[in-house]
C-alpha cells in the first residue's frame, strides 16, 4: 500500500499547554487506522490540524507524498479530506438525499434538479451498501441510520481520507454493526480511514493499525493483529488497569426502589423491577427499547400513564424533577452537555444547583457553604483540575461527567439512576467513574445503570433487566448474564 497521508513531527502549543509534541502519523490507502488515547491526549488537536482548523507550530503534512499547507476546512475538503464528527451535522427536516448533497445540490437555472439529486444520493447509498431510502425524512431515521447518512455525505465528496470521530458513541453494539459494514466498504474502495473511538473492542475488530497518544505524544503505532485491549490500556494511561470496570462486592440490603406496571403509550409498557440498597441493577436493551424513557418517567421528567413507583416503601408521584429529587431520586442523563450541566457556569454553581434550598437562609445563598460543598465533592470525585470557579465546559469529557455525578450526589439520593455514565470518556476516566459507583453502592445507595456498552453492564451489575420494544423480556442474575443471554433477550429471541 502507498501512504495517502503523512503527518511528520507535528507539534502544537496553546497558552500554558503543550497539546502535541513531535507526533507522526502515516495512513495508507485502503487502511483503517485507529487513534486511541485518553481525553486530552491530543487526538482532537491532531485531527483539527489535518482539517485546517489549527496550523501546526512545527512539522509537515504530506498528501500523496507532496507537502501541503492546509489553510482551512474548505481547503481540507478540496484536498480530499472528509471529516465526520461525533456530533451529527445534519438537518432533520430535510430528506436523506438533500442532506447528502447539502452544499453541492444539483441545480439548473437556479432550480433544484430533484430527479438528479435523488439519483446521486441513491448511488452513494448503494455504493456503501446502506439500505436507506434517499426520500426518507432524516428526522424519521434511527440514530445509527443518521450516522450512516453523515458518512454518506462525506463519501459523496469522493475523499481520499475520511476521519470518523467517535462514530458509535450513541449506538449500541448491535447497531454499530451496520456502520462497521459501511466502514469496511469504504476501505475496499481504497479510502484511508482514520478511526477515533474509546471502545477498544471495536478498534481491535475494525482497525488495521493503531496509534496510541498520551499527553500529546505518540507512544506507539502497532498492527492491531496480536494487540489486546489490556495492552492498549497500558499504553494509553501509562499504568496497568487490570479491570476497566472494577466490581466491588458489597452487602445487598432491603428494597429501595420498586417499579410496578409502569407504562407510557408508545414508549414502554408494564415495566416492573426493583433495586435494593447497595445493589447495581443494569437496564439493558437496544437503542429505542425504552430504557431512557423509563428512567425519565421514574425521575419525573416524563409522565407515566400507569404504574407505581415506590422509594423505601413510600409511593412516589414525581411529576417534575424537583419532586423526583424530593423523593430521594437522582438522575444522571445520557446527554451531559444538553441535560446534565450548564456548560458556561462554574463547577461550583453546577454542583450546588439541586440543593440551593439547603444552602440558603431567608432566600440568600450562603457562598461559604456553597464553596465548602463544591470543594468537598470535587475532592471526593477527583475532578481535575480541582478549581471550583472554573467553567465546566473547559474540562475534559470525563471530568465534566464527574461534575454531573457530583451535582446529584450533593442531593444525597437514596436512588441514583445513571444513564450512559461513561459515554464519550476515556478509559482512565471510566475506571475512576466506576470506582465512584462502587463506593456509592458500598454506602447503601440503590443504583440503576443504563449503558449501551454491554461489557460495562455485565461487569458491574448484580442483576440485569433487559428491555425489548418497551417491555421487560428477561431478568438475569449476575451468574446467568453473558453477552449471548442479554442479546437474545434484547432482540426478543429469549421471549420467543
From TrEMBL:
Entry's localization field: Cell membrane
Keywords: ATP-binding, Cell membrane, Membrane, Nucleotide-binding, Repeat, Sugar transport, Translocase, Transport
One example GO MF annotation: ATP binding
GO terms under cellular component: plasma membrane
CDD domains in the record: ABC_Carb_Monos_I, ABC_Carb_Monos_II
Domain of life of the native organism: Bacteria
Principal cellular location given in the protein's record: membrane
Record domain ABC transporter: where: 5-240, 239-494
InterPro entries per UniProt: AAA+_ATPase (IPR003593), ABC_carbohydrate_import_ATPase (IPR050107), ABC_transporter-like_ATP-bd (IPR003439), ABC_transporter-like_CS (IPR017871), P-loop_NTPase (IPR027417)
Matching Pfam families: ABC_tran
Topology versus the membrane: Peripheral membrane protein
Stored PANTHER family: CARBOHYDRATE TRANSPORT ATP-BINDING PROTEIN MG119-RELATED, D-ALLOSE IMPORT ATP-BINDING PROTEIN ALSA-RELATED
Name by which UniProt lists this protein: Ribose transport system ATP-binding protein/rhamnose transport system ATP-binding protein
Organism (species): Leucobacter luti
Biological classification of the source: Bacteria, Bacillati, Actinomycetota, Actinomycetes, Micrococcales
Amino acid at each position: 500500500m502507498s501512504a495517502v497521508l503523512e503527518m511528520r513531527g507535528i507539534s502544537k502549543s496553546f497558552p500554558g499547554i503543550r497539546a502535541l509534541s513531535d507526533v507522526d502519523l502515516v495512513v495508507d490507502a485502503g487502511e483503517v487506522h485507529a487513534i486511541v488515547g485518553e481525553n486530552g491526549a491530543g487526538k482532537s488537536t491532531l485531527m483539527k490540524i489535518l482539517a485546517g482548523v489549527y496550523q501546526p507550530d512545527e512539522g509537515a503534512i504530506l498528501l500523496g507524498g507532496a507537502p501541503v499547507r492546509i489553510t482551512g476546512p474548505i481547503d481540507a475538503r478540496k484536498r480530499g479530506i472528509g471529516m465526520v464528527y461525533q456530533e451529527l451535522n445534519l438537518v432533520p427536516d430535510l430528506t436523506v438525499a438533500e442532506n447528502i448533497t447539502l452544499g453541492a445540490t444539483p441545480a439548473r437555472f437556479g432550480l433544484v434538479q430533484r430527479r438528479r439529486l435523488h439519483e446521486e444520493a441513491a448511488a452513494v447509498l448503494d455504493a456503501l451498501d446502506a439500505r436507506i431510502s434517499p426520500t426518507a425524512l432524516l428526522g424519521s431515521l434511527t440514530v445509527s441510520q443518521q450516522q450512516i447518512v453523515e458518512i454518506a455525505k462525506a463519501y459523496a465528496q469522493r475523499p481520499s481520507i475520511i476521519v470518523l470521530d467517535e462514530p458509535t458513541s450513541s449506538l449500541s453494539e448491535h447497531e454499530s454493526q451496520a456502520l462497521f459494514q459501511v466502514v469496511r466498504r469504504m476501505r475496499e474502495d481504497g479510502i484511508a480511514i482514520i478511526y477515533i473511538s474509546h471502545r477498544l473492542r471495536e478498534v481491535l475488530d475494525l482497525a488495521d493499525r493503531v496509534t496510541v497518544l498520551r499527553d500529546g505524544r505518540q507512544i506507539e503505532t502497532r498492527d492491531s493483529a496480536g494487540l489486546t485491549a489490556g495492552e492498549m490500556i497500558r499504553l494509553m494511561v501509562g499504568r496497568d488497569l487490570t479491570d476497566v470496570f472494577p466490581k466491588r462486592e458489597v452487602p445487598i440490603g432491603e428494597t429501595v426502589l420498586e417499579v410496578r406496571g409502569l407504562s407510557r403509550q408508545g414508549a414502554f409498557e408494564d415495566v416492573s423491577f426493583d433495586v435494593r440498597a447497595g445493589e447495581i441493577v443494569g437496564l439493558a436493551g437496544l437503542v429505542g427499547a425504552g430504557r431512557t424513557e423509563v428512567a425519565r418517567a421514574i425521575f419525573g421528567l416524563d409522565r407515566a400513564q400507569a404504574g407505581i413507583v415506590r422509594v423505601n416503601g413510600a409511593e412516589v408521584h414525581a411529576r417534575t424533577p424537583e419532586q423526583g429529587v424530593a423523593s430521594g431520586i437522582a438522575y444522571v442523563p445520557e446527554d451531559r452537555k444538553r441535560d446534565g450541566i450548564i456548560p458556561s457556569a462554574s463547577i461550583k454553581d453546577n454542583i450546588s444547583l439541586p440543593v440551593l434550598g439547603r444552602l440558603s437562609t431567608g432566600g440568600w445563598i450562603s457562598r461559604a457553604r456553597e464553596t465548602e460543598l463544591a470543594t468537598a465533592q470535587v475532592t471526593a470525585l477527583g475532578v481535575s483540575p480541582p478549581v471550583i470557579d472554573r467553567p465546566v465546559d473547559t474540562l475534559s469529557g470525563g471530568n465534566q461527567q464527574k461534575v454531573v455525578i457530583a451535582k446529584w450526589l450533593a442531593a444525597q439520593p437514596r436512588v441514583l439512576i445513571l444513564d450512559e455514565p461513561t459515554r464519550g470518556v476515556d478509559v482512565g476516566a471510566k475506571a475512576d467513574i466506576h470506582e465512584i459507583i462502587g463506593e456509592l453502592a458500598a454506602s447503601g445507595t440503590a443504583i440503576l445503570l443504563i449503558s449501551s456498552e454491554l461489557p460495562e453492564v455485565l461487569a458491574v451489575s448484580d442483576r440485569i433487566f433487559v428491555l425489548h420494544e418497551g417491555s421487560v423480556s428477561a431478568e438475569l442474575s449476575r451468574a446467568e448474564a453473558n453477552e449471548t443471554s442479554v442479546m437474545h433477550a434484547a432482540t426478543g429471541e429469549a421471549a420467543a
